[in-house]
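Hi L.,

You mentioned the student needs an example of a multi-chain input paired with its predicted structure. This one should do, with 886 residues in total across all chains.
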Amino acid sequence: MKDTRLSLVILIAFVIVLVAGAEIAEIRLFVRIATNLSISLILVLGLQVFMGNSGILSFAHIGFMGVGAYASAVLTIPLQMRGMALPDLYPIMAGLQVSPYVGILIGGLTAAAVAALVSYPLMRLSDAAAVITSFALLVVLHTVMLQWSAITNGPRTLFGIPKATDLYLAAGFAILAIIGAMLFRESRTGLLLRATRDDEIGAGAIGANVSRLRWKAFVLSALFAGIAGALWGHFITSFSPKAFYLKETFVILGMLVIGGAPTVTGAVIGTFLVVFSFEALRAVEASLNAAKIFTGQVVGLTEVVLALAMIAILILRPGGLFATMEIGVLLGRRRKKSNEGEKPSEGEK
Amino acid sequence: MLDVAAMLEVSSLELRYGAIRAVKDVSLTVGKGELVALLGANGAGKSSTLRAIAGAHKPASGAIRLNGEDVTNLSPERMVRNGVAMVPETRDVFPDLTVAENLRLGAFTRRADVSGVEEDKARMFRLFPILAERAEQAAGTLSGGEQQMLVVARALMSRPRLLLLDEPSLGLAPTIVGRIFDMIAELKDSGLTMLLVEQNASMALGVADRAYVMRLGKIAADGTAADIAAASDLKALYLGS
Amino acid sequence: MAVYLQFIIDVLSLGGAYALMALGLVIVYGILRLVNFAYGELIMVSGYTMFLLGDSALPWIVMAAAGVFMAIVGGIVTDYVAFRPVRTKSVTAVLITSFAFSTLLQNAALLFISPRPRNVPLPDIFSETVRFAGVVTPARNLITIAAAVILLAVFAWMMKRTVLGVAMRAAATHFTMARMLGVSANLIISTAFAISGLFAGIVSLFWIGRIGSVVPGIGLEPLLIAFIATVIGGMRSLQGAVLGGFLLAFIDTGLNYSLPQDLLKFLDAFTFSLVILILLWRPAGLMKGPASGQRT
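Structure written out for the whole complex:
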């Protein structure tokens, strides 16, 4: 438990340093990057809660981000704009407006509810079938977002979402997400779930109901995704279904895989690494385009590099950078080793 | 020391499963035309040794030589082409393939020689008439003893120079076991070189020329079959004193 | 009467394409237990090959052959880039490397060709309509049915009669044992990827034949279809993949015919819901694959 607390302290420290750094620098760009990073943290931690503990790859995660974003948007767009933004909105919702903070919570709960309803049959599938079906689920969520114009404004951009997310709010939720993910991992459900990941039959023998465990983790991860989505919506103030599909799925998968899916540390470190690398690459892309070295626009460079990085990590360190132990545990072991090394010299008897 | 040219020479073999050393230091030889038995209790490392010789398990250290050539790290399919065929303890018939298809697959390395393969298949059907009867049946529907015959016949289809047999009597009724060992004796008479892993020491020693006894990953005793059979501490060797 | 015939032709032609697509996926999965996320991109590769050859004076059949050939090459390259380096590491690792490879290919097309649709040459016969017994259908549909039937028959023959086919079926049951009989692992795997590429290439001719152009993301829908057909058919069963393909086509076409206009845009959501019901009833899929004690 001490090691867990150490891990939490270190990871939360990362976030605090991030916030402090952005605020001190007082550059708007940095604040924006830090806010986006915090939101990504919540998203990737949600993915870690399910993927890291169950061992099953889920492609549907970003879909639930969209559910949260739209759920909060529909209820928080100011009434005077509602008619313009969502002309076909159902009368019950058209007159209802809540504060963005309530909206964020509703976004998370809606995503969790959808996940709870839809996902139970998926949890009974074999690993490969579950992955494939999660992929299909993403497509379905995307299709619904694209077509349900009454609520989402269809494929068009949805405007008018009140800006309520600032760096402190996002970072605050990120810290909550770190704590939540760690608590889940060490909880009875988390431990049992991880046991099923390593030995399904053995875990069943001690009474673990694999489907139910997976389902709980999936619903919790959707809660994280929904909150992240709503937070993002209130940050960026306008979005379309395009933001919740394959490209973003690939990016969050990259963050988790590179960092290490089985650990919360992995999710956090991976997110930091990828976001910083992305910003660096974008700067490179921008200067390449400005210098007009290639005839056309250089686009997609960041995805290509991320793809190569993922393949490289998977070859060299298949589990990711933090594949088995949280950072607190790693440091704890090193401390113990150096203590033991000192003992003989502590004076002869 | 033997004055028979060694076909198979295993030196200081070490095998690991992760951190566990299943085989610590095994050295043995099999001469051309010999039937050598590898005995020992469960978990002694006999099957692992056989799998390493067949190429299915990379040794952590040590060497394996076939007719003088170093074959230590060759893949299973290369070992078959070098004339080594293995009949695994799990009796892996391909259950959805027919008996005939299983046999045809055994001759995969000789697939260019269509008529030769047909001849061999006919020969197997003569040697094992029960397989001829069930030629078009799915291999998974055969009884344990029939499957054992199938996997041996399948291994023979590649015309091996060295046959590795892993616990052929495992899980079979005593009468069937007798027939399996009759078959093994016939194969020996035909000049086939064999390395036989068996828990059933008495039956194995009945057909073998020489034997090794393994215990906890090492060779604990070796000698002619008669010597080993006469040794009164065989039980101790198996179970430890 | 004509409506029923029309329906049957639609289901058979769509099902033929779906079945081939699914089969290409299962061949690799059955032997390697690995899902190839870059599979859809083989259709993209074939399409762009034909686009790049489009201005030449070559007859269409040559361009089509080139497209199919490049799909086969693409399949084998996928093995070397995304599978071989990580095959022994973990199942998740391979899923992700193939997903990464898929992104790589799509972005390569984006960067080096164009994000906008590009026209692909089509033979005139594809757009000709055929009329009989009150049915009006593009000739392309009938050609698809014929091609699917021929390919499936040849494939079934190959699997049953040739020693390579027997070896592949054995490898899908127990790869190590097959190797201990002398079956070369590399040969089997490369063959599986090549066949997978062949099927994707053939499907691309008809898939693009319906649309007339190619975009970087064209592979997503066929990939999804292959996925779903495979899952409902039974992950490791070749017959299941074919059955799944036809069943999916049946559901899709049926819903297409019967959904009211304003719900039609949710077609995918409905199809998927039906698929979920099938999976609720049969989590392991409709057909059992070859016997194996290993994790599916």
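You could point out the following to them. Residues 2-245 of chain A form one domain. The radius of gyration of chain A is 22 Å.

Best wishes,
N.
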